[in-house]
Please model this.
Amino acid sequence: MPIGPITRMRACLDTLDGVFLRMASWFMQLTPENIQVEELTTGKIAAKLGISGASVVRFCYKLGYPNFASFKMALMVELLDPAASAAAESRLNYPPAASKVIERTLPSMSLTLKTINPALFNRAVEAMCRASMVIWYGFPGDSAHLAMSGEHKMTRSSLRARATTDIRELEALTRIISPGDVVIAISQSGRWEGAARAMEEFRKRHGTIICITGQADSVMARAADIILLTAARDISLGGEPLALRAAQLMLIDMLVLEVASRLQSVSLEWIEPKAAPAK
Model:
């Protein structure tokens, strides 16, 4: 994901003066709401700022663009895609591998919010509110940690929950559930057939199955009543795939805190971040 022109302006703002500083100040106040594409020509920008068209082109060169057309396209992408803009800006301050994580994680969270059907999310929350017990299942690995996070946050919220990473324990729990209880199965690939079979048994006992996965057409997703599709991004680590799972962790927080809020099981306060004291 390339770094956009607004981000580049902010990074070099203290080195700009004169005409270039005037242009940077004007571009940086543009927003998706006030931008007028038809006004973004070298002639109209020059007339608006009282400068020459050649100065506008030189400004594009200074920011690393070969021409005004490339600058304009990059500007539109940055202004109209906040997640891309945030990821690009964050990359300026971190080393390469950390920047790549940011580059993939922030857009995946934004895409997840667009991918999940709000009606399905609400159905999942309603099922969790009705349940006497919510069982979190995650296959050993990152999914297991996510399942334990779900259990931990529900327990903190005074809600009954159990996490397991063992398929035999999931099968045993299936035999003692009450009708209306919920199992939340987490798997990026959704390919674990043993988990899918346990989920089918859960349904026979009138439980509700929620699957958090990155693959809608997977055996675990097909076994679920409610599919919450996330957009985790994969990388290769040691030649093996590894998913960056921040989007799924965000979804778990959304589910648990929405349930806690509706049931008023515990006091919930949204604490605003405080500015760090000046040194």
The longest helix spans residues 96-115. Strands lie at 134-138, 161-164, 182-187, 208-213, 226-229, 233-237, 240-244.
